[in-house]
Amino acid sequence: MKLYMHAAACSLSPHIVCRELGLDIELVQVDRQSHRTSKGEDYLAINGNGYVPALMLDDGKVLTEGPAIVQFLADSVPHGASLLPAVGDLRRNEVQSYLNFITAELHKPMVLLFNPIYSSVHDEIRALVSKRLAWLNSRLTGPYLTGDAFSVADAYLFVCLNWSPWTDIDLKQWPALHGFMARVAARPKVREALQAEDLEAFDADGGYFAPHAYLASAGRTGEPVRP
């Protein structure tokens, strides 16, 4: 399988899931401006929307949208129930509920905070995101979203919250979420994914990871720390 991705983007979520499940995956970088892949392909011919992730199966079929991809990956192997409970188990629906919440209430508005076109309403967007994070913080009573078991929703949440320092959102005001980030970042397979995408943390920020070029352009200082 091929996973079309940008480093540290939402495609990191299915990348983490593949690592957690031990799935063999080929990472294919997509250039945001040209929509050409690292293999010379026209990415718009693969995913007409132009954004990542996209998962190309061995038979050439393509699946898009991160929440759908991570569920497919978990369902593709018998031990995938460790990340997504089986159909008929209410815990599966709880994970799906969190996937929907993250994609609609966190992912989309946080992406807008990167876009200068929406700068006039960034304060309002940030206030909305903060409200959702406060709710999520109150729900996170265990190590992970649905309790003791790491799920595909936790991988997705980790990726979105990883953007916090670059959207002027300080997770330290929500201790449960701040602890969640450190806990997920310490998982061996998550660290493998961070290493594979060549991401770094700067000690001024703790456990938040980004490509070196992005950290430098954002004026981050400190010694880069590799996972």
Automatic annotation (TrEMBL):
What's in the keyword line of the UniProt record? Transferase
Q: SUPFAM superfamilies, from UniProt?
A: GST C-terminal domain-like, Thioredoxin-like
Q: Does the keyword Transferase apply?
A: yes
Citing just one GO molecular function, the answer is:
transferase activity
The record places domain GST N-terminal at: 1-81
Q: In which domain of life is the source organism classified? A: Bacteria
Q: Where is the GST C-terminal domain?
A: 88-227
| Record Gene3D superfamilies | 1.20.1050.10, Glutaredoxin
NCBIfam families attached here? PRK10542.1
What is this protein's name? Answer: Glutathione transferase GstA
Recall the taxonomic lineage recorded for the source organism: Bacteria, Pseudomonadati, Pseudomonadota, Alphaproteobacteria, Hyphomicrobiales
